[in-house]
């Protein structure tokens, strides 16, 4: 199953739009007036004369491009600003509406000013979404790997945290509060991509969560128009798997055991759930 993690590591600690009038922002705004940018823009529009955003719409639209925008917002980073591979040709309508609205939402997510666990700004996705829930070591990742297709997208907190903070392959790092928040911010940006029309080309999005409370899973179903799949793996099986993982170098064994017990203490069912017993 292909990895769908972004090929870049976004700096999720950058404040939102608070620097719009700072000396630093005034400096990079001057870059747009340089001859170097004028030439780079011309080359980009010759290379991509049609709006890439319109071509991703369903149904597909063909529109002449007149704006060159940065795929990864540069926020004053010179390497990102001048990187030709970070440029995309779009029409003014797309740039002023959908693209800038997504960038504003990204800034809100980065700012940490809203709930990170279940942001209220989530809305219906343009693709099918399955949320897969269960206690730690329930087998959620294994279940998704067994059922996800080639065109599917998998969004998993643990996989994001490992990519960001593991020092070696396979390591499951201990996370501080700030690390958890930054991982949630990146996860939410990936989920935000599902709310854009371009996500219609995705097969199914699989979002791996814990969410022991039925009301929380109903929230996800309502927000994303998702199906809730719950793996009701027994606490005994989960504890045995955690002990096995500890032998493989997982440093989270103590907290993982506690989370399993807590999950089963507060678990409630929901009529929206597809509940699956998970074999040992």
Structure description:
This protein has 280 residues and is of the alpha/beta class. The protein has 2 domains: 23-111; 128-276, 3-Layer(aba) Sandwich (Rossmann fold). Helices cover 44% and strands 11% of the residues. The chain contains 11 helices and 7 strands. The strands form 2 sheets. The protein has a 5-stranded parallel beta sheet, sandwiched between helices. A two-stranded antiparallel ribbon has the order 1-2. Helix 7 crosses helix 8 (177-193) and helix 10 (235-247) packs antiparallel against helix 11. The protein is elongated, with a radius of gyration of 21 Å. 21% of the residues are buried.
Derived from helix and strand composition plus strand pairing, the structural class reads alpha/beta
> Based on DSSP secondary structure assignment, what is the total number of beta strands?
7
Indicate the CATH topology of the largest domain. Rossmann fold
CATH architecture heading of the largest domain: 3-Layer(aba) Sandwich
Mean pLDDT: 81
Largest sheet at a glance?
5 strands, parallel
Low-confidence stretches: 1-22, 108-113
Order of strands, main sheet, comes to 4-5-3-6-7
Q: Quick one: overall form?
A: elongated
% residues in beta strands: 5-15%
The CATH class name of the largest domain reads Alpha Beta
Helix fraction, binned, reads 40-55%
Order of helices and strands: HHHEHEHEHEHHEHEHHE
Q: What is the straight-line distance between the termini?
A: 24 Å
**Radius of gyration, in angstroms, nearest whole number:** 21 Å
